[in-house]
Amino acid sequence: MRSTSFPYLALYAPMLVGLLLTGCIGNGLPAPISDARTRPTALLFGMYVTPDGEHNPIDPPERFTGYHAGLDYEIRESELRTDVPVYAICDGSVLYSGFAEGYGGLLVQRCMIENEEVTVLYGHLAQEDMMPEGETPKAGEQLGILAAHRTLWSGWNRKHLHLGIHRGADTDMRGYVESAEELEAFVNPASVLPRSATGRPVSTHRVVGPTTRDEAIPEERFDTSSTSSVSS
Ligand SMILES: [Zn+2]
Q1: If both were cysteines, with which of 137, 200, 215, 229 could 88 make a disulfide (CB 3.0 to 4.6 Å apart)?
Q2: Interval between CA 55 and ligand 1 midpoint (Å)
Q3: What is residue 52's three-state secondary structure?
Q4: Which residues are near ligand 1, the ion (C-beta closer than 5 Å)?
Q5: pLDDT per position in the chain (232 positions), as tens?
Q6: How many angstroms does the Cα of residue 6 sit away from the middle of ligand 1?
């Protein structure tokens, strides 16, 4: 039997190589945040949530009601006081970089993803270090850092990243929509990012850090100049 294994291997080897290549380059978007493979994700795309804890995977819930039009990446307790960089998932120009209601800091980038024109929303970024409008970052380039927990620039939310992808050239800054039909204007990030970049889904996420804005924790900045690719 052993003698027959070689021809079979010869037959299948090219297919295996093809599969491996597809896995590597067929869906090569980089993650928008470090450690994406193991980072908890509880508030997934399309979930309907309310500020009532019964209908929200975030504990305690944020104040929003609606269908979540993006994917939230949570932080670890050790990241409450450290800079957490956010990276572009695609090549494309920065259309908006600044304050937006509900987010605090928001950066919107125009991209082509799977031959579709989209705008990508990176929500809850710190004011400092946010890449300005008009820049054209490459995929993987740093766009900014997460805003500190329960501050104006996190939208008084927990420290986390909201990643939204809206279809078409028009900017739609909504993080939640009112109907399932409206969700169709958005792309599920998990459907275009490689599995390793979409986080580790969990059914609930207990927020690390204080729960009220009165207990906001300022970030202790440290030198990121060696890793930052933001240029002025
Ligand atoms: Zn979100």
Answers
A1: 137
A2: 15
A3: coil
A4: 70, 72, 162
A5: 444 455 555 555 555 444 444 444 446 899 999 999 999 999 999 999 999 988 999 999 999 999 999 999 999 999 999 999 999 999 999 999 999 999 999 999 999 999 999 999 999 999 999 999 999 999 999 999 999 999 999 999 999 999 999 999 999 999 999 999 999 999 999 999 999 999 999 999 999 888 766 555 555 444 334 333 333 3
A6: 51
| Token pair listed for 107 | 């950066």
Question: Are the C-beta atoms of 190 and 45 separated by less than 8 Å?
Answer: yes
Output the CA 231–ligand 1 centroid distance in Å: 27
CATH architecture of the domain with range 30-215 = Distorted Sandwich (2.70)
- Report the distance separating Cα 100 and Cα 172, nearest Å: 11
Tokens of 14: 């090219």
